[in-house]
Sequence to fold (680 residues):
Amino acid sequence: MVQKIKLSTIAESLGLSTATISLALRDSPLVAIDTREKIKDQARALGYIYNRRAASLRTSRSGIIGVVVHDIMNPFYGEILKAIESELDRSRHTFILSNHYDSVEKQRTFIETLLQLGGDGVIMSPAIGTPIEDVKLAEANGMPAILVARSMDGVDLPTYRGDDSYGISLATNHLIGLGHRTIAMIGGTDQTSTGRDRYQGYVNALRKANIEVDPNLRIPGPRSKQGGFEAAVHFLSLPQKPTAAVCWNDLVAIGLMNGIARAGLVPGQDISVTGYDDLEEASIATPALTTVWNGQTEVGRLAARALLDRLSGSHDPDGIHLIKPEMRIRQSTSPHHPRA
Amino acid sequence: MVQKIKLSTIAESLGLSTATISLALRDSPLVAIDTREKIKDQARALGYIYNRRAASLRTSRSGIIGVVVHDIMNPFYGEILKAIESELDRSRHTFILSNHYDSVEKQRTFIETLLQLGGDGVIMSPAIGTPIEDVKLAEANGMPAILVARSMDGVDLPTYRGDDSYGISLATNHLIGLGHRTIAMIGGTDQTSTGRDRYQGYVNALRKANIEVDPNLRIPGPRSKQGGFEAAVHFLSLPQKPTAAVCWNDLVAIGLMNGIARAGLVPGQDISVTGYDDLEEASIATPALTTVWNGQTEVGRLAARALLDRLSGSHDPDGIHLIKPEMRIRQSTSPHHPRA
DNA sequence: GTCATTGTGACAAACGATTGCCTACCGGAA
DNA sequence: TTCCGGTAGGCAATCGTTTGTCACAATGAC
Fold:
């Protein structure tokens, strides 16, 4: 770096004032059109780099939006992020990403960092156990927050997520319709709203079909492929001999299918398995996974839009916006037939 | 936001000057220890939020580090990012992430944004076709750059990546050792150094074993599960009837295995398949994938360290640092036996 | 009693862009 | 000639921290 080019550098080289340069570069009609062009050419020629920190110090708008989710490597969040990214891209906002891995601590650190940077807003999928003060912290300092994928009790923020209870009942009903009666539920946790809703959806569907709900058919915990893979052993040794499994998400389902295959059974034939989310991967799994689309792209897109709208003044109605999930039937489920 | 708390707010409330507050909050020995404590307490009580933009305007250090790779949803990069994240975390740096999807355009926009924000440095896996000026742009404006996973010709930056040529020869030799003679190579592109190196490693290994290299056994292109899955059809219809496939990466390998299974063959038995990278997923695939560990965690860790070192003055030697890959033998490869 | 020395903390000038306010100038109407 | 409306562009204060330079007081040595 030989020397920083700043507005005054351009101004002097052209015999104008920095005010004019500033206005010209931002296409203000206060500067005559050809003066404007001349200024822009000169800026380009000198290799001028706009200093956002200086600008945002004055304007208190930084163009930075924070996004924090459980784990960006999880494709479910990945698909949400992609949707957010493409929505934010077209509005010249920069976004800062972070994982919280369900650590409240890490999440708070992120919010604080974002405040220090003067973030304009934040989109978050709150960590398990997030205290209300942490999101209040953002709002209290003028940084609007939007929730995705998970809701939080006791806080009235715009929230975008799938209708979990309805979605899981789609999957459960599908299996019931195929004749299955002993249906296990693999994965998930009661510590999130999502977890509670999904279990409830499963329970409701069974009840409605007059199938007794056996709490031992629930294997809570797994949320990843690895987890699903490991749960297969437990699943296959259940005394009730389930013929089907409703999984927490596609990753668990794929892991479970791998585990079932490893044990010498044929997933989709011997055991029916449903996923949840409909990740890109679901359709190329072996067998192709029957699952429930959870609207991740919609969630991301709407959340980003809502935040941008809010930044530009119009206050979107708070509250939870549920996306309707849709069933995707593939080869991992088949009619019930007694196990050999 | 009722009212912004700033240094002067604290200063007035305590009858001190902003200078003292500033020094105290950063634990300067220039301020007496109990004055310091009193100031910190007051800052906490008032809910003071450090304004990094103002600070960095003065100091021209922002604490921001940019990272741009092909696709953060790709687990290979994901594992690199995790390593970078954990290294950067302990040094109080914020990092900004972006995908370039191999668009030079998108990558340049990112670099420009980072410059505007006053980024302290950037770690990048350069997009295909990145012009030298783009990385020079960063360096010329005082923002050091480090390359990961891919190298760039004609530019002398610190680069951390696996030894592709050596790594792929491990996989190829493994298959040759099992008796395979007709070995296809699936995926990759000549447009990156990585692509060229891996193909070269494959060719060299075959030559050394006196196996004729048939360019038609190469199916370039695929880099994802989807791609591997789709390539299966082409692969299975090759007139040379390959008995094994060296894949570009684990994703392609897993996709290919799925495609092979879909066609009624048993991957790992009828066709031996090797992956590359040794993602977490490789060991739970069905069959468990024989692959080559590509040192992603090392790459990320070392690159982050190198950047931090450079930021703190010590200039790390430029040039390419190769990580030695290691073979991981699992069930997706088996001795050659004639196809039925 | 003087003179250093040390410890505290204040002053004020940056950093670079934005913007409300003001001036100068031009052409046209009365 | 005087006045008016309008356009182009300059001035200078401001955003919140940091930091080099100083000032002042207390201490201790001689």
Chain A touches chain B through 48 residues (CB under 8 Å). The two ends of chain A are 74 Å apart (CA to CA). Chain A has three domains: 7-50, 62-162+296-323, 164-294.
